[in-house]
Amino acid sequence: MEGANIYRGTGVVFGILTGLLICVILFRFVNRDKKIMTKYDERQEAVRGKAYMYGFWGSMIGAAIVICIDCAGIVIANRFAMDFFIIFVGILVQVTYSIWHDGYYGINTNKKRFYLISLAAGIVNLLVVAAQVREGVFIVDGVMSDSAVNLMCVILFLVVAAELIMKDAADKKREASEESED
């Protein structure tokens, strides 16, 4: 049993490292200048700093939720998925604040490519969840398995996509009203 935990832990580490490598490659694709680092102006940097602070507090709230669920003896998902829930709450808070305060897209970001990659990532995670449900391993003994992390990714990408669409629509409407005033 202990050996299985070592293999699982090793798999998680390699999975995270592979994900980070893929992110580096995708950043080069998303940025117009093909650089890994996205560029932001001073105002965006300030917004992003505040967004990260709020993301931290979001993670703390996520941790408090997990602690309350644990103390109540409620088991919704396995420990792995519950730990990732904390991370996802922080990410969602950080991204949401950044989007609505114009700090999400860098000045060198190609929005169409970004949408494409986000859509692809959401679909891939949805396919994983669907496969796990079909195989009967998404819920094991009444508890969501590790695949709940993929479900959280699907939810995160859907929420972010909806926010980006709403923000872009709001910006276009604001720009149109400003042009009509001139």
Structural notes for this entry:
The chain is about 75% helix and about 0% strand. The protein has about 180 residues and is mainly alpha-helical. It has two domains: about 1-30; about 30-180, no CATH class. Strands 1-2 form a two-stranded antiparallel sheet. About 20% of the residues are buried.
Q: Helix and strand layout, with pairings?
A:
Layout: H1 2-30, H2 42-71, H3 79-100, H4 111-134, E1 139-140, E2 143-144, H5 148-181
Let me know the number of strands.
2
Based on secondary structure, the structural category is mainly alpha
Rounded to the nearest angstrom, the radius of gyration is 19 Å
Instruction: Provide mean pLDDT, rounded.
Output: 87
Could you tell me the strand content as a percent range?
Answer: under 5%
Could you list the spans in which at least 5 consecutive residues all have pLDDT below 50? none
The arrangement of helices and strands along the chain is HHHHEEH
Sheet with the most strands, sense and barrel status: 2 strands, antiparallel
Query: What is the overall number of helices?
Result: 5
> What is the CA-CA span between the terminal residues?
71 Å
**How would you write the strand order of the largest sheet?**
1-2
- How much helical structure, as a percent, in the residues? over 70%
Mass-distribution shape: globular
Provide the number of structural domains.
2
